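Hi R.,

Here's the input for the pyridoxal-5'-phosphate complex you asked about:
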Amino acid sequence: METIDWKNLPFGYLKTDYNVRCYYRNQQWGELEVSDSEYMNIHIAATCLHYGQEAFEGLKVFMGVDGKIRVFRIEENARRMRSSAYGVMMQEVPEEIFTAACIRAVQLNKRFIPPYGTGASLYIRPLLIGTGAQVGVKPAKEYCLLVFTTPVGPYFKEGFKPVAVQIARDYDRAAPLGTGQYKVGGNYAASLRAGERAHCEGFSTVLFLDAKEKKFIDEAGPANFFGIKGDTYVTPLSASILPSITNKSLMTLAEEMGMKVERRHVYIEELGEFEEVGACGTAAVISPIGKIVDRDSGQTFEYCREGKAGPKSTMLYNRIRAIQYGEEADKYGWTTIID
Ligand SMILES: Cc1ncc(COP(=O)(O)O)c(C=O)c1O
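And here is the predicted structure with pyridoxal-5'-phosphate in place:
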């Protein structure tokens, strides 16, 4: 067996042993199938190739301090995948099939779960695609759920260190009444140009504004945005952002820590009033934001002046990590133990 440098894993693809597939044909879901191939045969007129009938999820599995394997909030991902399927008219995957496929994929690739203490985890990537052929713009009649896993290090290579992000007005990730609330490939395709340009200009990601008015913060590339003002955790309320499971968890923990939680429009001008700001998502949990630069006006907002994350972001980050690694009691029942 190849040796894996667990401590220096990128957030990238590494081949594991097996993936799990489940097909919807003749109006019913079949049995789970296990494959050791990284490829799939697909009809040349499949709707996922032509009309974007595609949705995916991302969740993580952790090796706990007690040697137990935990997956974080899997039922939330199952629910969100159903919502995404609804959003682009795909067959919804029953939550028990989604969960069983993910768990089976983890069990078959146990040897790729990074050891406790490395900061790495096993990422699960469920994918739902329209496989049935259509030439007219219509939903497919056949679908495939595929689940693969890959061990990953932290998403932002800086780790839990402040990153710089860029506000860009010349690109939108999602339209106000479009598909921004669903985890569908088209949203990511729409964000690639702005994201790559931000990287080239020295930023880790783009802070997208609401597409209609360009007045409010929407989200930070593949992560939700939050700001902390005194004892208040503020996060954008918008129909065009992905409902982040990490953000939902942070809101619960913030309230538990005695903070007030506000989900509402966050005006650009308000950026100057926050003491801490961050991007949150499965990949990084929290990426503290040290600097926000408005690409058009050059206006700059700075945080984390000592070069490290603020105290409240740090506390929230530590709490969620402790639950994921089984270091702290899981009083909300967020984790599922996999045998
Ligand atoms: C666009 C977008 N926003 C937010 C998030 C964060 O969501 P979650 O916390 O469920 O990973 C993600 C994915 O991770 C994303 O792709």
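One thing worth noting: The CA atoms of residues 26 and 142 lie 8 Å apart.

Cheers,
M.
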